[in-house]
Amino acid sequence: MNNIWLLAQNAGSEGASGITSESVTTEQTSTTTVASDPNSTVPGKQAPGLFGSPLILFGLMAVVMYFLLFRGPRKKQQQHKQMVQTLQKNDKVRTIGGIIGTVVDIRDDEITLKVDESNNTKIKVATSAVGRNLSKDKS
User: Fold this and answer.
1) For residue range 88-97, what is the model confidence (pLDDT) as tens digits?
2) Whole-number Cα distances in Å, 48 to 36, 40, 41, 117
3) Coil, strand, or helix at residue 97?
4) What span, in angstroms and rounded, lies between the C-alpha atoms of 17 and 2?
5) What is the CATH code for 54-133?
6) pTM across the whole model
7) Buried (b) or exposed (e) across 71-103, using 16+ Cβ within 10 A?
């Protein structure tokens, strides 16, 4: 194991293929390198990352996903439920379909709206179909 054979192509016209072989011992090829850069990394050691551990990064991502995917819609559902519970007769509302009417009757899961004053036209909609309370919201 003291000899290492190197194959190299010679630029001259030596032989038909121009490839020569010569014996090189390990003493001739060993070199010592010294790291002069204080920021260089040593082989086998990792540079510390931004958060130190992938587990911490995974936990942080889980918290962000919770707030983006679950907390926002749940808060909106609670606001809608509270708005429907505070509805009273003669409140003007707009449904998610764009129909504007006045609340005539409120039951457990349906609301009766008066849509046309002249013909006394009434429709029944589900409580989930009410989009905004126009009497309370002035924006």
Assistant:
1) 999 999 999 9
2) 20, 13, 10, 72
3) coil
4) 28
5) 2.30.30.30
6) 0.53
7) eeeeeeeeeeeebbeebeeebbbbbeeeeebbb
73: its two tokens:
């819609």
> Using CB atoms within 10 A of its CB, is residue 115 exposed (0-12), middle (13-18) or buried (19+)?
middle
Summarize pLDDT for 40-65 with one digit per residue, the tens. 555 556 655 555 688 888 999 999 99
**How far from the centroid of its chain's Cα atoms is residue 63's Cα?**
11
Residue type, 8: A
Bridge partners for 103 per DSSP: 113
The two tokens of residue 109 are: 């899961």
5-to-23, 24, 104, 111 alpha-carbon distances in Å: 5, 6, 98, 91
User: Which amino acid, one-letter code, is at 64?
Assistant: V
Residues 31, 37, 43, CA angle at the centre, nearest 5°?
60
Domain residue spans in the chain?
A: 1-30, 54-133
